Amino acid sequence: MVITMNNLVISYLTYLALLSMAVGDAVSNSGLYPLVVSTWPFLEAVRAAWKVVDSGSSAVDAVVEGCSACEELRCDGTVGPGGSPDENGETTLDAMVMNGVTMEVGAVAGMRYIRDGIKAAKLVMQYTDHTMLVGEQASAFAISMGLPGPSNLSSPDSIKKWTNWKESNCQPNFRTNVIPLDSCGPYHPKDTANPGNKLCFIGDDATLKVSGSYAGPHNHDTISMAVIDKMGNIAVGTSTNGATFKIPGRVGDGPIAGSSAYADAEVGACGATGDGDIMMRFLPCYQVVESMRLGMEPQLAAKDAISRISRKYPDFVGAIFAVNKNGIHAGACHGWTFQYSVRSPEMSDVEVFTVSP
């Protein structure tokens, strides 16, 4: 078979067309620095970050301020304290901040009793050689570094949500292949009595079905934010209280660098939101940045990363924004309509971009 340049061009154009049909996308050039991009219409969070970065502060400081504002406002009930109770009715926090110049990362996961997730993550980056601290040990560290606590992270809303869920026999939940199916447990493996009756292999061409759709703007979500400061330095951050009614101990993609967010000041940045249990298996934001490093525009890089997931999990719900070091930004999504927010010098206020699946 002889491969000509025309064949390669046609194949590439066909690939782009297939991507356009598979996932939604939006693209825009935001102009000069500084720049703030965030998942969802979290306008006050973007304004808070913009105020910091426009005054000349660093991209890292702006990300922390923006995500912190979202925690205080309990954006959509899925960020900060007071939302997303787990099976035991407790709210825990996951957060991450990444410096795209030094590639330093600070993260906390499953953190209890501390209201300031993103600030705790920054403390990990500033005052340790570690990348992530978890659970009560993360809480103890945050308090030792000056954050207030311990605090009750529940709220009347989260307690009511949990109580109603318990009265509905704990349905829906994230348990699979267990018995009993229609109660609050205790649960036992369904195949204990017949260990040979298990799925051992899935072929390369198989697609995997997500059991239940738990991701949504008021259930399973994250603020993911990228900032380019006046010096062209890039940082990203995320904060979330995780999936509602999650199994205690569950950590999603929020604190995972490369999954919920990633930044490299030589290339650009990415933020993600959606079903973190699925998305973290693909490190989509790392993929986006590496694709842009190889020359892909943000629009194609975002669409490509989403399509890699949707080919294996056609029922998953998720979205990505991508921004390169020149301030060109784009979004892609699958399974829902996605919106992301932007503030740049050419804008008088935050603008919201809508991406269709």
Automatic annotation (TrEMBL):
It catalyses: Cleavage of a beta-linked Asp residue from the N-terminus of a polypeptide. Heterotetramer of two alpha and two beta chains arranged as a dimer of alpha/beta heterodimers. GO terms for molecular function: beta-aspartyl-peptidase activity; N4-(beta-N-acetylglucosaminyl)-L-asparaginase activity. Residues 1-24 form the signal peptide. The record marks D221, T222 as: Cleavage. Transmembrane segments: none annotated. One of its GO terms (biological process) is proteolysis. Keywords: Autocatalytic cleavage, Hydrolase, Protease, Signal. Pfam families: Asparaginase_2. This is beta-aspartyl-peptidase. Substrate binds at R250, V251, G252, D253, T273, G274, D275, G276. Belongs to the Ntn-hydrolase family. The keyword Protein biosynthesis does not apply. Its EC number is 3.4.19.5. It comes from Lithospermum erythrorhizon. The active site is at T222. GO terms for cellular component: cytoplasm.
